[in-house]
Amino acid sequence: MERGNFTTKPKSLPKYISKEEISSILDKAKKDRYRNYILLLCLWRTGMRVSEVVELKKMDVADGNVIVRDSKHHKDRVIPLESELGNLLGLFSDSMKPRDKLFPLTDRQIRNIVYKYAPTDLGVHPHTFRHSFAVHCLKMGMNLRTLQKILGHSSLTTTQVYLDIVGKDVKDDFGKVEW
Length: 179
Hints:
There is one protein chain. The protein has eight helices and five strands. It is mainly alpha-helical and 179 residues long. It has a single domain, classed as hpI Integrase, Chain A. Helix 2 (34-46) runs antiparallel to helix 4 (83-92) and helix 2 (34-46) crosses helix 6.
């Protein structure tokens, strides 16, 4: 795109994978190591950043919510938990002390866990779970402002990027219809 003397590159859309592809990754982790399964499920069903999961403590999971403390923009936020994940996190952390980290792992260790279970041809990274969460929520009809709050975006414009992806999927799916 040319604009005056400047050339602007179109912004690429975030990479995401389907619910079915996520399920396949989760199934592999569930059969291998329970902690890894819970970790990946947490990434998928909360949309949390890896840095936020690394800092997540037992006391941050309560009353059907996860409290993300001092996130990217130095603000706390609350993410609702669906009941299955809430119950699994409760059982998983049952013997922990309130200030214990749920997943005492580094960003790199979490990345390696994702790589262990994700097919290499998909190019999945930990942040792919966040993008996939956002796209899935919008496809299921979640309000954009609600998604903005859950993801912790300070600007609605940041969250709107996911609308472009959902719009592209609609066009692709429509193209599959035979007339």
